[in-house]
C-alpha cells in the first residue's frame, strides 16, 4: 500500500511540474513582435570648408571655424531690469567650396552646450550669471540648442547663416551696481548638410 501511495504522489507531482512548465512556455507569448523600426541615412562626400567671421556678410574664404565675438561695453543700468538686453553683435558662419555634393546647410548649436538654456540664455563665467543670449538672424528668436534653423540653400558652392550675441539679463532679478565685471561664454556648433 505504501508503495502505491508513493507512486500516486509521484505522478501527481510530475503532472503538477508539467502544468507549471507549460504555463511558463505559454507566458512567453507576451514577447511577441508588434512593429518594426527602420533607420535610414546617407553619408555624403561633402568637402565644404567651414569659416566664421564678425558681421552679417557670409564668409566665402578662409578656414577659421573658431571665432571670438566681443560685445560692446555697456553700463549695468542698460540691462538692470529682468529680460532687458543691449548690444546686439552679429556674426556669420559660412561654408564654401562645396561643389555639388550638398544642397543645403544648417548650423546647429550642439546640445552639449550645457551652459545654454532652451531660450538661448548663456551662463557666463568671470561675471558669474546669466548675462548673455544668442539670437537667430531676425534678432528676436532665441537659438535653441539642438534645433537648427531651416536649411539654407547652397548656391555657387557656398552658403551661410547669421546670428546675434547680446548682453541679456536672464538672472530673473533686477541688477545693481555690484553686477559689473568681465563676462565670457563659449559654445560648440556643428554644420549639417543635406
The CATH C-level name is Mainly Beta
Total domains, how many? 1
Q: How many helices does DSSP assign?
A: 1
- CATH superfamily membership: Fimbrial-type adhesion domain
Tell me the CATH topology.
Answer: Immunoglobulin-like
Strand order of the largest sheet: 1-2-7-5-4-8
Instruction: Write down the Rg.
Output: 31 Å
Topology as H/E string? Answer: HEEEEEEEEE
What's a quick, concise take on this entry?
The chain has one helix at residues 2-27; strands spanning 49-54, 85-96, 104-109, 121-126, 129-136, 152-153, 159-168, 183-184, 189-193. The chain has 194 residues and is α+β, with helices and mostly antiparallel strands.
Helix and strand layout, with pairings?
Elements: H1 2-27, E1 49-54, E2 85-96, E3 104-109, E4 121-126, E5 129-136, E6 152-153, E7 159-168, E8 183-184, E9 189-193
Antiparallel strand pairs: 1-2, 2-7, 3-6, 3-9, 4-5, 4-8, 5-7
